[in-house]
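QUALITY CONTROL LOG
STEP: pairwise intake check
CHECKER ROLE: data steward
CRITERIA: each record must contain a sequence immediately followed by its structure tokens, with no blank fields

ENTRY 1 OF 2
RESULT FIELD BELOW
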Amino acid sequence: MKTMLAGWLLLAGLLAAPMASAQPAKPTIVLVHGAFADSSSWNGVITKLTRDGYRVVTAANPLRGVASDATAVRDLVKSIQGPVVLVGHSYGGSVVSEAAQGPANVKALVFVSAFAPDAGETAIGLTGRFPGSTLGTALAPPVALGSGGNDLYIEQRRFHGQFAADVPAAQAGLMAAGQRPIAEAALSEASSAPAWKTVPSWFIYGDGDKNIPPAAMAFMADRARSRETVIVKGGSHVVMVSKPASVARLIEQAATAR
């Protein structure tokens, strides 16, 4: 009888051990690209995050308008079980800040060379508030849309220097050819109530950015009470491409913060 009881106690201990040592599930990382880019711009970051055990989802940002793009991303976030870290690049920062209004599972926001507008602010307005952007002179002639309005691209011959100066020329050439256009109206669409006022936020950007003035991003990071702000020396507008380890490290910091 004693032998049988000891056996049951041993079995119970073995069954309980894995449960006691079980760790909480890691947040899902949702990556949102910005204008003149696509989801492949996150490839280096994805590689590092998945290697560290994170589930990663990239959102195909429509680049049509802040409110409608945010709705698409919000619907994606709502479909995910468990906590989410929302990461936005460039114009995608405006989108994630708006998309995080509503879903209760967004635990952190990460802005990568990105806008973090307040209510009523626009991407073009924030860019023009500080000196340093040369994007306007690097744009190709607008492409008129049959439905009205225009699509904007960066001229391919200007793409490397304007958008991705710290990326190898061959890689920048591929990015230029595959760039996604943004609707011109999206850059002047005002944002609504920003989630960065209530959701903890992290920022990373390069001090060599020619799209969004570094001074503008410093202003937005400070205003959002950024938990951690990383400034990449000589970094272009695509630090997630040129410095994926630094971007992934900051995302993981946001994911593990309490």
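ENTRY 2 OF 2
RESULT FIELD BELOW
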Amino acid sequence: MSRFPTAGHLASWAGTCPGSNESAGRVKSTRTRLGNPHLKGALGIAAMAAARTKGTYFSAKYRRIASRRGPIKAIVAIEHAMLIAIWNMLTAQADYRDPGDDFYTQRNPDKAKHRAVDQLRHLGYAVTLEPLPATG
């Protein structure tokens, strides 16, 4: 992996980075590069398999992105995230530690709480929250 100084260089070579062609505030193209077709194919299969698993970080990331941007862009985002993780594992000589499907909830619990309360309010429920009593 010494050929690629950063994970972004590897992702760009593999063709998983979105384009950022912008001129005068207008976005021209966000297509990915062609990259290495063999690596791109293997990453695509791995990303689709990871998106279908349950209880993993990649499946949670896929669901979040696919709901906003669509399934194809979500697969490319998973490919990119997997390649970044692979680069970090190979350069640090470490095993992969999955953050889990509740990574986004644990990172910002207040946001998850407010989202759940807002969803209930939109369904017509009055919601009041009380902290659980401490048990000891």
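INTAKE CHECK: passed for both entries
DESCRIPTIVE NOTE, ENTRY 2: Residues 14 and 39 are 7 Å apart (CA to CA).
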